[in-house]
Structure formats: C-alpha cells, structure tokens
Amino acid sequence: MRAVIAFMWLLHWLPLPLLGRFGEAVGSLLFMALKSRRHIALTNLRLCMPELSEAERVALARRHFQAYSRSVWERAILWWAPESRLRRLIKVEPAMPMHEFEAGPVIVLCPHFVCLDVAGAACAMAATMSSMYVAQSNKAFDDVLRRGRERFRPVRIFSRQEGIKPILRALRERMPYFMLPDMDFGDKDAPFVPFFGVPAATLTATARIAASTGAKVIPVVATYLPNYRGWQVKFYPAWEDYPGEDMIEATRRMNAFIEERVREAPAEYFWTHKRFKTRPAGEPSPYAK
To answer: What's the domain count of the chain?
Structure first.
C-alpha cells in the first residue's frame, strides 16, 4: 500500500486531463476484471433503471467504473496539490452558503456520487466541519485519507460507534455536519423507503437529527466538469418545512431528491455498493447469482 500511496503522490503533479484519462483507462480494465462488482452495478441498474436496455445498462456501468476509478486517482490532487490549484479546479455554484453555515446548525447532505470527496474538500477550505468516518483497514491508507481530509481546517470526525450524541453537540456549537445519507447499514433505524421504486433500508438519521436540533438541510452534489476541466460542486437551497412530523415521509423526500440528482449524472452515482442488500423479511437478495 505504501508503494501505491507514493505512486499517487507522484500523480498529483500531472495535469488533470492526463490524470483523468489515466483513471478512466484503469476503470475500463477494472470493469472487465472485477466481475463481482460489475454484477452488483448491473443488478442495481436493472432494479433502478428498467427502462434501459441491457446494452445501455452495460455501457452505463462501464462509464461508472471509469468515473469511479478516475475519482480515486484524482484524490491525489485533493490530498497533495496546493490549495490554489484546487480553487482553480473546483467550481462552486451558486456559492458556498457561508451565511447559512454561520447562522445556525446545518446538515450538509452529500449523496454518494463518486466525487463526494471534492465536495468535502470544497467545504473544508471554507469552514470547520464535522463528519462521520469509517476507519480503513489499512493503517497507511487510513492515515493518508485522514490527513487529506483534515489538511485545510480542523475536521471533527466521529465514528459510527460513538452514535449520534457527538453529532448533536457539534451542531449545537454551530459546526456544520457533512453527512453521507444513502448507504445500506442494515435495518436498525432504517425503514424500507422506496429508492427508484425499490424498497431500500434507509437511515432516518437525517430527518431525526434535523428535528432534534432545528438544523437546516442543505444538499450538495459534486460532479465532473466536461473536458477534464475540474469539478462542479453544486449547493441546493435549504429544504423548506423539513422534516415535519413524519420521519419516514421526510426520508422518502430525501430519497426522491437523490433520485433526481442521479438521473442528471447517472454514471457518477455509486452503483457498486449493495444498496438493496438488506431486504424485507422473506425477500431474497437481488445480488444472489
């Protein structure tokens, strides 16, 4: 792993168009080699986009592998390039909502698009944030990942084992919470809420945290700019009247928002995650071969 990290450090000197093309080439190879991950991606696409032909889904899955691989190698720029270079490459629109960050508790809701680390870097360059973190199994990579995410401003990182209390404290201190809401962590506190019409175990944490702290929810999505020109980080208006009284309905609203963003950049959503791994009682896994 140390050799890979050293190689990534060297890559951060490359122009982004060259690095991006390198990442896509590796992704094309991985699409052919990683049969199990390809199966997961195609299963997700069959469930979520049945209107596409199988050939269209295969082409979309290949583009996803290219985009995902590219995002991994481009982290070299996020971790080691000068901040001035990142500011040239990251286009924030309409603008970083600093007045919202400073006015009161804010949940920055970042769905799992492959460029989510770019959104995190954009926020970290502007404000002190908190976030939840899953430790990596390889310590060398874990250290590099943490340093890369903390190099602009101090970031208060919590583990899932700590639960929700430190997040609530940070929000009450008016520290924005950078939240990744859309993965399958099992059925604890995760009712089955439709995602592309398919019941998906979805954490109600976004709605519950917003309800208990009065936090505004401001979504952000990071995607690629055309022609390897960098990345776009788009902030959406704070959700009005959220979450309301019904936590499940609020979670349904969140999933619907994510669906809309996925349709805008379908190759860049994280299709290789088993989003429908947890099933209602008696329902078989869609990933079984």
So the answer is: 1
